[in-house]
Each structure stands twice: as C-alpha cells, then as structure tokens.
Specification:
Largest sheet: 6 strands, mixed
Distance between the termini: 5 Å
Structural class: alpha+beta
Length: 255
DNA sequence: ATGGCTTATTGTATAAGA
C-alpha cells in the first residue's frame, strides 16, 4: 500500500501536475493540502476519470484538504471535533482498514504573532483528538504539511533560522508530543540522503540551491511501523513549470 | 553580484504563505 502527501498550493493551478503524478505513481492514498477552493470547484470528475475517489474539506482562497484513493473511502471525518475552527485543515477517512488523517497544520507567520499562538493551540487540539483516535484506530497514519522541521538536519541553515517559525523549540516540542502518542516519523525509519527537504521558497532560487526545509511528514502508529518498507521525497514535481513550493512524500507499506 | 516568488481576490494593490 502506497501512501503519499502533497501540499499543492492551489489545486486549481496544480490539477494537471496532480493528474500526471497520479498516473505515474498510482498511490493507494494521496493526501492534498492547500486546495484553496470551495467544494463546488473541487475536480471530482477529473479525478474520477483518472480512477480516483476523493473526499474534500475546502474553503475559498485558503487552506483546504483532500484525500484521494482508487479504493473505497469510508467514514470521512471533517475537522477536529470539539475544536471550533473556521479554517479547513483536517480531513480523515478509513481506506483498506488504515485510518488516514490528512492535516494542513498552521504556518504561524512569526513567533510573536497571534497566528503562532493559534498554531500552538491548534497543535494541542490535534494532539488531544489523536490520542483518542489512536485507541479507536490502531492502524493510523498522519500525513500532511506540518509546518514544522523537527530537527536541525531538516533545515538548510539551522543557525540562520534559529528561533524562527518552523524550527522554534515550542513547535518542535509539539512535534515530539505527537511522537509520544506512539507515532513514528516514517522518513527517519530509513537511511536518507543528507539535506533532504520537502519545501523550498519560490524566491532566491531556493530549489536550485537546495535551501529547503523538511516540513511535510508521514507519521505512522506503532502497528504500522513494522509494515513500513520505504519512505522517500519525490523531487520530480518541483522541477516542473509552475510547481508547487512543496513536493510529495511517499510511504510504502507492506499491506 | 548575487537574489525579492506565487496565489487569490472583484483586484489594478494587498495579504498570506514559509
């Protein structure tokens, strides 16, 4: 079973890339973030023609998450229950007896901003919810754009970035608290190239100079950990014309 | 010397992303 996540930075713009990528990679699950469209604009038809079912939790202009699969998508859940949030950042569903949780975690803008405070509150709500979800669904994978680089090696210049969003101690602590629920960073279960990143700034030739961050992750529960076969970042879509600033992460499971 | 992008909006500048 092949699971993947990709922040597409507008599905309206990136649909051709997504369709090409689905055809080339045929994942069993693709989680999307930043669809940036209302559900009425979501391309269910084009995806269906490509052999993919989809569930979408979207809104105009910002945020928006989706789960795509050629298999039956069951028991879809929208948003974090009991956490009031206008922003569409969560969708979850069961596919082939794996609970798929797709998240677009808050960016946070700057550590002294209200958006950062919202990010920390949001991460706390996610943690509380997932603790309960893991008891309900032991086979669980948490895929998405976390907007957290968990370790210095996940940042191209940890000294320049020290204390800033994506790498601040509080954010990294929140990431560790997710691991403490019994989740595992599938990417780090395997030998990886140095300076592996999943996002590069559009500016300053970030991609060409590999000035990136690893902020897109696939965490897996204890029961799925032993089933992990490989995890890799696919840089190919970042090289296309008009790319998303993020690129897909792919996990292969023996399921 | 460097090098300042991309998206959406009822827009022709601004906000947000990371």
């Amino acid at each position: 079973m092949k699971l993947a996540t990709w922040n597409v930075n507008s599905l309206n713009v990136r649909l051709p890339h997504v369709l090409d990528w689905l055809e080339a990679n045929r994942p069993d699950v693709l989680c999307l973030q930043e669809t940036k469209q209302e559900d009425s604009k979501f391309p269910y038809g084009a995806l269906k023609e490509a052999g993919y079912n989809a569930v979408h939790n979207g809104q105009k202009t910002y945020n928006g998450v989706a789960i795509l699969s050629p298999h039956l998508i069951e028991n879809a859940q929208f948003d974090i229950p009991d956490y009031a949030d206008e922003q569409k950042r969560v969708i979850a569903a069961s596919i082939n007896s794996v609970r798929i949780v797709c998240v677009y975690i808050v960016n946070g803008q700057a550590v002294d901003s209200e958006k950062y405070a919202y990010k920390m509150r949001w991460l706390n709500a996610l943690n509380i919810w997932l603790e309960n979800e893991l008891t309900k669904y032991p086979n669980l994978a948490l895929l998405g754009d976390y907007n957290i680089a968990p370790d210095d090696r996940d940042c191209h210049d940890p000294i320049a970035w020290e204390g800033q969003i994506l790498v601040s101690p509080q954010e990294r602590e929140a990431f560790q608290k997710l691991l403490q629920l019994g989740l595992h960073d599938s990417f780090r279960l395997f030998e990886q190239p140095e300076k592996s990143f999943s996002w590069w700034d559009y500016r300053m030739m970030g991609f060409r100079r590999n000035l990136g961050m690893r902020i897109d992750h696939i965490l897996v529960s204890n029961t799925l950990k032993d089933k992990c076969q490989s995890c890799m970042i696919d840089k190919a879509p970042r090289k296309l014309e008009r790319p998303s600033d993020h690129t897909p992460v792919i996990l292969e499971l023996s399921l």
